[in-house]
Amino acid sequence: MFRILLLLSLILALLTIPLLWMNGYAIAGICLVLFWWTLALGFRYRSALVPYSFPIAILGVVTLAMFFPKPFQEVAGFPLTGLINPLIQVIMFGMGATLSWKDFAAVAKSPKSVILGIGLQFTIMPLVGFGLAKISGLAPEVAAGIILVGCSPSGTASNVMAFLARANVALSVALTSIITLMAPFITPILMKFLAGQFIEIDLLKMMWDIVKIILLPVGAGLLVNHLLKKNSIGLDGILPLVSMVGIGLIILVITAAGRDSLLQIGPVLIGLVLIHNVLGYGIAYGCSKVLGFQEQDARTLAIEVGMQNAGLASGLANILGKITTLGLAPAVFGPLQNITGSILAAFWGRRKKEADPS
Q: How many domains would you assign to the chain?
């Protein structure tokens, strides 16, 4: 099946080239979307390639939105960007429902790693994002989107990448949870300080918006998990799938909404976002090793810092009514970090796990 799907994806890719040459953009777009999705499905049949399946499927989603944006912009007069925040809340609820108080035990076991992770998260990415925004030459609202991504907390995808990278998964979960719960208070302050010269920021309103998007659904998820306890086992299998579908839909809607702008500034923005993402991995890993942290903890901190909650950043851009400008950087960062994160996790995952000195 792997070979059949790989061959089919190759045929679809080869068909795309002459179709584009003959200006058959609609059919070429369909072939290209099917190429990514067939390739993603094929990768599910090779254990070593499974981590790349979801990022490749997301590339198919982005391609779909770029070639056929109108169906994903509005339906019967309803702008589909109105679905972004509810989808984020569903994802945050899923995060809360799969957490328990035991997940925070890593704080007691390795407080230094947690403190360093929080410090790196709220310094490296915001400051690097600010620097890139200043030198980007992009329109102020678009440049501010780079800062917005940097000021956002880490996303739940980092926990999966930490597992694949043979990193400290318990520490990853604890950091994601704590940083996410701190975001309603720290993200708006960072945005006011760093992005205030690019766009107007209402500090208190942004705090309340993030509380609604993060704290309330995560709290509800934690409550459901606590009440159901053993009966929540079925949710553990369903909620990750719901989250993946939700992420795909968010990227689809955001990309479709900002499609015209992406065609104009896409290469520049992709380059800046890639630098932002890679520097997050590299600086966090380097700081961790210099300070004498174990390899597994250093990997965890690198992944936590480099991978951001692009969905939350998109939701905030949508609330501000700037999804087609402020939301462009999050729209690019989301798919890109899944690709780079998968590559990094696969590289580390193949390396021999360092022995625990204890």
A: 1
